[in-house]
């Protein structure tokens, strides 16, 4: 039911946008819609890519997103207008493996600068074989936990039979939820912009450095804020937080694997209840773009609280903040409360 409603609203928004752009094109030669402006035009696949493009590009770029606010990015289908826009733009910024329709459209398009964020950092599997990753520059406390956390994750994944595979050869694409990985992507995007639009290279470099610094500060806030907690385990409806968990020495348990709307089995709910008791888990997290029904059902049965942990796939009026940094800080507060941070 929810899936259908979400698709309809996405289609309605796209249709409205298309109508609006249609009227506009009569008097403006469709330049705003097609990305044919006098600025450096960037088409981004969804919010975390658009945010990077805007912050790095500043006044020199005209950024448009293929995913409307409030639209679930995984299910996106592109309109003919959007495909035409890809032919007109100067650059396309996307994350291969997250949105198959986007990967295909950008692959087939003649856009000169194609920037795949998945090539700018290392993607990992967060499934049955997710144990034993070595992160350079990880905090010492993380390394302490790594062995036990990964062993636990590995064991849990085998038992629960989650499917964490994504289109990118089984790799988890949710890299933007780890500020360190997101900063690596930002650096790569900055270099690509400098190369594609050399006239403004100095500004792109300066903006990238400022963004990377801010992401470094966010990483420190997470490190300090989650260092000393009563429990290291958190339960979510959507397995989006594998990188974040790994970065800060936590263990993510997802109710029903990757699909936030699939119903968990009775056995899985029982298992989560047992685990919640054993690990001192107080809260089940759900996300903003989908229904909280599953989380509330499991929480009620287990006598637990519910709260939002936002995978930041889009900003809507339900988001706890207006941009990436505000929502990530809200996520940190929610985790601190749920994990019993000192």
Question: Any overview of this molecule?
Answer:
The chain is 50% helix and 10% strand. The protein is built from twelve helices and eight strands. The chain has helices spanning 2-28, 31-34, 47-57, 80-88, 100-108, 140-160, 179-196, 201-225, 242-247, 266-279, 293-302, 324-339, and strands at residues 40-44, 61-65, 91-94, 113-116, 233-236, 251-254, 283-286, 305-308. Helix 3 (47-57) crosses helix 7 (179-196). It is globular, with a radius of gyration of 20 Å. Mean pLDDT is 80; it is low at 1-34 and 128-168.
Summarize the structure.
The chain is of the alpha/beta class and 342 residues long.
Number of DSSP-assigned strands: 8
- Per the principal axes of the C-alpha atoms, what is the gross shape? globular
Q: Report Rg.
A: 20 Å
How much of the residues is beta strand, in percent? 5-15%
Alpha-carbon distance between the two ends: 41 Å
Order of helices and strands: HHEHEHEHEHHHEHEHEHEH
Largest sheet: 4 strands, parallel
Low-confidence stretches: 1-34, 128-168
Count of DSSP helices?
Answer: 12
Summed over residues and divided by their number, the pLDDT gives a mean of: 80
Biggest sheet, spatial arrangement of strands: 2-1-3-4
Question: Helical residue percent?
Answer: 40-55%
The structure class reads alpha/beta
